[in-house]
């Protein structure tokens, strides 16, 4: 999957909310993504293969109001939000969307975009250990009332 196509497809929504998910929320990194963050000081090390970085204001990768990670190095979490896969037995069995994004309803109806996000996760499945998947999708962020099936 071409990351630039996903970023460009999301941009028509993200421009309208001024890229709010790069400010004051959280980003999750998988341990195999750490080399992409070279040159940045991370607050801690991954636990169970996942590092959740919370930030009260700007994300530590934000520079001059843009993500400093090249599109090829963009984190899976950032490319995906607010659309995520249901992963069962090592397969993507469906998609969910997080209601924290103000445009989640419009995005959920954007079949081309949600299809690209699904393919991106399917292409990365081989990198994901089951315990990482369990860790990534744990915590209050994933409370059922904040999720909607697509
Ligand atoms: S909250 Fe939604 S629309 Fe806003 S930047 Fe994040 S993904 Fe884009
Ligand atoms: S890593 Fe980049 S895209 Fe992801 S939240 Fe931070 S600034 Fe935004």
Give the structure's gist in a few sentences:
With 150 residues, the protein is an alpha+beta fold. The protein has one domain (3-149).
What report would you give on this structure?
By secondary structure, the protein is an alpha+beta fold. It has one domain (3-149). It is 29% helix and 21% strand. The protein contains five helices and seven strands. The strands form three sheets. It has a three-stranded antiparallel sheet with strand order 5-6-7. The protein has a two-stranded antiparallel sheet with strand order 1-2. Strands 3-4 form a two-stranded antiparallel ribbon. It is globular, with a radius of gyration of 15 Å. The two termini are 20 Å apart. The mean pLDDT is 94. The structure holds iron/sulfur cluster (2 copies). One iron/sulfur cluster binds next to loops.
Highlighted features:
150 residues; alpha+beta; two-stranded antiparallel sheet; binds iron/sulfur cluster
């Amino acid at each position: 999957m071409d990351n630039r196509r996903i970023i460009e497809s999301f941009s028509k929504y993200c421009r309208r909310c001024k890229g709010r998910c790069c400010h004051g929320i959280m980003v999750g990194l998988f341990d195999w993504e750490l080399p992409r963050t070279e040159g940045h000081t991370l607050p801690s090390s991954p636990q169970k293969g996942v590092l959740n970085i919370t930030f009260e204001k700007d994300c530590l990768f934000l520079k001059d109001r843009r993500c400093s990670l090249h599109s090829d190095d963009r984190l899976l979490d950032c490319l995906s939000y607010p659309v995520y896969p249901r992963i069962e037995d090592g397969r993507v069995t469906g998609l969910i969307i997080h209601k924290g994004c103000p445009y989640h309803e419009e995005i959920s109806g954007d079949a081309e975009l949600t299809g690209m996000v699904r393919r991106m996760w399917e292409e990365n499945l081989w990198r994901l250990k089951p315990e990482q998947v369990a860790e990534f999708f744990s915590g209050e962020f994933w409370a059922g009332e904040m999720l909607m099936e697509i």
